[in-house]
Amino acid sequence: MKRAYNLVLTLLLISCGSTQLKQNNPNDIVGGPDGVKGSIAEKEQIKVDEERIVNEVNTAKPLTKNVFSSSDVVSELMYFLASDELGGRDSGTPGIEKAAVFIENIFKESDVKPYFTSYRDTLSNYEKPAYNIIGVLEGIDAQLKNEYIVIGAHYDHIGTRSPVNGDTIANGANDNAAGTTTVLELARYFGNSRTNKRSLVFALFSAEEKGLLGSKHLAKKLKEENFNLYTMLNFEMVGVPLVDKDYFVYASGYERSNLADICNSYTSENLVGFLPTAKEFNLFARSDNYPFHTEFAVPSQTFSTFDFTNFDHYHKVGDEASLMDFDHMATLVNKFIPVIEGIANASQQEIKYH
């Protein structure tokens, strides 16, 4: 798998002349092949390399009975999603278009079906063409499949910033290629295992950085369709581990529900804890869980391992894939598989707001 990434990186260095993307013309067409710069041969080669990474990720085998994800698979996803080639994944740009195609291909290879007529959910509240990418796995239980769990993360970032040591691209590895990778790995697991009695919707949001616009759009749209939402579980900035904590992740809005207790019961460990700073800064209302909370009034919370002390590159050009802890990320995926499986298969809805 390393060979695929190394080839992509080599091609980027050849085609770009450096690890920086050239400035985009504001009049460039966004979306589809015509929105991607470079020669036809370069575009085709990038497409081949993307497909190779997707194929390698989707054919990866569990290491042991209890381990599904691995640091190798996670690193392949992360190094592509946070690469300079994607230009910081600003909403409505050619860079995020490449990320969208990449996500669609992984959903397709994992047998995750489009929730709508296609994987793309066009935002109605953003001035440029921007898309959520939405897939669904129907539950295997005749009754419980009518209840839905949304598993989400935003895949956009902030594009470019003022140069720091010649670097202008805010790659957004921790924010939020890490959350996107987590959702993709969970989609791959359940797409292959088909162990979910309730239906699972995997949602990758655009324009989160513009004010939660992607999740606001989708939550409103689903509410108007009388979508039967049980709970929304969101992943945000999970690329580096917490330090000196006796829990693995924290949940925003911890005190609002019994979600942490439910998660911990399915892993028989202190997986989810309370971070006082998260309450102090009201992180519950600052990520993509919040629009689902406001529209549906059901438990909707975000899992994170960013605690304001363990990562110094928030919204900066230094948010690079090389700084991420891929072992930690793979462990997070593996720990959450039995959690989501348990929530999806419980005979009754267990998660409740207090």
- Report, as a whole number of angstroms, the end-to-end distance: 46 Å
Structural class: alpha/beta
CATH class: Alpha Beta
Question: Which architecture would the CATH scheme give at its second level?
Answer: 3-Layer(aba) Sandwich
Number of helices: 10
Task: From the 3D structure, determine the CATH topology.
Answer: Aminopeptidase
Domains counted in the coordinates: how many? 1
Element-level helix/strand string: HHHHEEEEEEHEHEEHEHHEH
User: How would a crystallographer describe the biggest sheet?
Assistant: 9 strands, mixed
Low-confidence stretches: 1-38
In terms of DSSP E residues, the strand content is: 5-15%
Q: How would the global form be characterised? A: globular
The Rg value, from CA coordinates, equals 19 Å
Mean pLDDT: 88
The CATH homologous superfamily is termed Zn peptidases
The count of β-strands is 11
Percent helix, as a range, is 25-40%
Write the layout of secondary structure elements.
Elements: H1 2-16, H2 40-58, H3 71-81, H4 94-109, E1 113-114, E2 120-122, E3 131-137, E4 148-154, E5 160-164, E6 167-169, H5 173-193, E7 199-205, H6 213-224, E8 229-235, E9 249-251, H7 259-267, E10 272-273, H8 276-280, H9 290-296, E11 300-304, H10 326-345
Parallel strand pairs: 4-7, 4-8, 8-11, 9-10
Antiparallel strand pairs: 1-3, 2-3, 3-7, 5-6, 9-11
Description:
The chain is of the alpha/beta class and 354 residues long. It has a single domain (2-345), classed as Zn peptidases (Aminopeptidase, 3-Layer(aba) Sandwich). It is 38% helix and 14% strand. 51% of the residues are buried.
